[in-house]
Design brief:
Layout lengths: L7 H11 L1 H16 L6 E5 L5 H8 L3 E6 L2 H10 L4 E4 L10 E6 L9 H14 E12 L8 E8 L2 E10 L4 E10 L2 E10 L3 H11 L1 E6 L11 E8 L3
Parallel strand pairs: 1-2, 1-4, 2-3, 4-5
Antiparallel strand pairs: 5-11, 6-7, 7-8, 8-9, 10-11
Helix pairs in contact: 2-3, 5-6
Length: 236
């Protein structure tokens, strides 16, 4: 049976087995905020997941609004960081409040089409203060270098099988994920749109940002086909 997006089993596995991506990204993003002289204020964390990055922001002195489509992810975030404001919504549709920074860690932007992504950048520009930051990562063609991959991951009380396939013509990446946890099984299918780095930069600049790109979050792991974008809202 196919479960809702990031249902309870996948949310749990993602939190306990793949949370290091957010932890490794945290020093890089916090450094960019400090460099921009953003010492406090509201940061909107799009696709906040289980709240690992939101908790880091809270500990660094920021107010945080976490947005995620998954009620099960938000339940984990609420337990991890009770003082973080949370909202169940899609990062591609949510109304963004005035803020000093917006982040989206973990390929969340790849779940929307080109027009949706362009509109997100425009909405972010409207919400951010002058010189505010939009920091996110996005997957590009080549995310799966071998085009097709199978992998198994195991932990305490759970097993996860992933079949990932990249379509270079359609520029999509499909991940079919099966989780067995505490004797219960669930399945999810995630389809990501893949974007070239130059086209994302062009959309950001058109929306009113100055952009730098990076191959990783500083000293964090470099994943194939993933780029990090640091976009500064121009004053205009």
């Amino acid at each position: 049976m196919t479960q809702p997006f990031y249902g309870p089993d996948l949310a749990h596995v993602h939190d306990v087995a793949f949370g290091d991506w957010a932890r490794e990204a945290a020093p890089f993003v916090l450094a960019r905020l400090r460099e921009a002289r953003i010492e406090d204020g509201l940061v909107v964390d799009l696709g906040c997941g289980s709240g690992i990055w939101a908790a880091e922001l809270l500990g660094a002195g920021y107010e945080v609004l976490g947005i995620d489509t998954s009620a099960d992810m938000l339940a984990l975030a609420r337990a991890r960081a009770p003082r973080v404001r949370l909202r169940q919504d899609s990062l591609h549709d949510v109304e963004l409040p005035p803020c000093v920074a917006i982040t989206a860690l973990g390929e969340g932007v790849n779940y929307g089409g080109p027009l949706t992504l362009e509109l997100l950048f425009r909405r972010a520009h409207t919400a951010l203060v002058p010189d505010g930051l939009l920091v996110f990562d996005a997957a590009a063609p080549g995310r799966e270098p071998d085009l097709h991959r199978r992998a198994r991951y195991e932990g305490d009380g759970w097993v996860m099988d992933v079949e990932a396939g990249e379509d270079r013509v359609e520029r999509t990446l499909t991940r079919r994920i099966s989780v067995v946890r505490d004797g219960r099984s669930s399945e999810e299918a995630h389809v990501l749109r893949l974007y070239e780095r130059d086209e994302i930069v062009e959309w950001l600049e058109t929306a009113g940002f100055d952009v730098t790109t990076h191959p990783s979050y500083g000293a964090g792991r470099r994943l194939p086909g993933v780029y990090v974008y640091v976009a500064t809202r121009r004053q205009r």
